[in-house]
Amino acid sequence: MMLPADVAPGLPFARGRLYRAGVLTMHGQALIGPARALGIRHVLDLRSMQERDRELSLWGALMGVVSVRAPVDTDVRAPDAAIEALIGRFRCAPDAPSAHALMRTLYRGFADAFLPHLPALFTPLARGEPLLVHCTAGKDRTGFACALVARAMGVPAAQVVLDYLRHGQGAAQGAGGVRLRAGLARHLGVPADDAALAVLSGVDAAYLCDAFAALDTRYGSVDAYLAAGGVGSDTLAACRGSLAP
C-alpha cells in the first residue's frame, strides 16, 4: 500500500488531500493508527464485487470513515463484447501482444465505467476532506482516477503520464508485484508466460493515453466529461482551491 505524504510526488497538489493505495486487506492493525492520523474520512474502493467478496476489507469500519463507495466494475470480467473477445484471444494465446491489446481496450472503457462514480471522487476533494482511492493493484483504476483529478486540476498531460508511470511501476515491483502476478495467473485460468504477466501487472503510457483519447472522443474534453458525470464548474473550482499547494 502507498500512503504518501503528498498526493503524488511531482504534482502541484496540497498535502493531505488525496491518497492512493492498492488492496487494503493485506495490511493489518499496525497501519490503522497511522492511517487515522492522516484524517482520511472517505474511501473510494474501485474493486469489483467479485474482488471485494474474495478479499474483504474492514479498513473503512476500522478507520471510522464516513463513506465507502460502490464498486466500479472495470475488471476484465466486465460484460463488454470487446473485452470478452480479447479475453478469448488471450486464453488462446496468452502472450505479451494479446495482454497488451487487452490492457489498452480495458483502459479505453474507463471513462464510461467511471462516469457514475465521479461525484464520489470529486465531492470530498471539493470539501477539503481527505480521500483514499484504491483498487487491487493500485495502478490501473486507481491510476486513471488520480490522473483524472490531475487533468481536471490543469496539470499538463505529459506530467500526469509521468506520475502515472512512477506510481504504477512502484506497484508492480517487490512483494506486491509478485502477489499481483500470482493473482492474475489464477484469475485468468491459463498458463500465461512471464512476458504476458509482466504486461498485465505493469503500466504503459499508451494505456493512459488511450483512456483519455477515448474520453475526448466521446465527451469532447475532461471538463465536459466531468459535467456529464455530475461534477460541475462550482465543484471543480472548489477542488482547485482545495488542492492548490
Strand content: 5-15%
Rg from Cα = 17 Å
DSSP E strands, number: 4
Class inferred from helices and paired strands: mainly alpha
Label the overall shape: globular
CATH third-tier fold name: Protein-Tyrosine Phosphatase, Chain A
Number of helices: 14
Number of domains: 1
Give the name of the CATH superfamily. Answer: Protein tyrosine phosphatase superfamily
Helix content: 55-70%
H and E string: EHEHHEHHHHEHHHHHHH
Weakly predicted, low-confidence segments? 1-9, 73-79
Named CATH architecture: Alpha-Beta Complex
Largest sheet report: 4 strands, parallel
Mean pLDDT: 78
The first-level CATH class is given as: Alpha Beta
Strand order in space, largest sheet: 1-4-2-3
Distance between the ends: 24 Å
Can you walk me through this structure?
The chain is mainly alpha-helical and 245 residues long. The chain has one domain: Protein tyrosine phosphatase superfamily (Protein-Tyrosine Phosphatase, Chain A). 57% of the residues lie in helices and 6% in strands. The protein contains 14 helices and four strands. Strands 1-4-2-3 form a four-stranded parallel sheet, with helices on one face. Helix 5 packs parallel to helix 11 and helix 10 crosses helix 11. The N terminus is likely disordered.
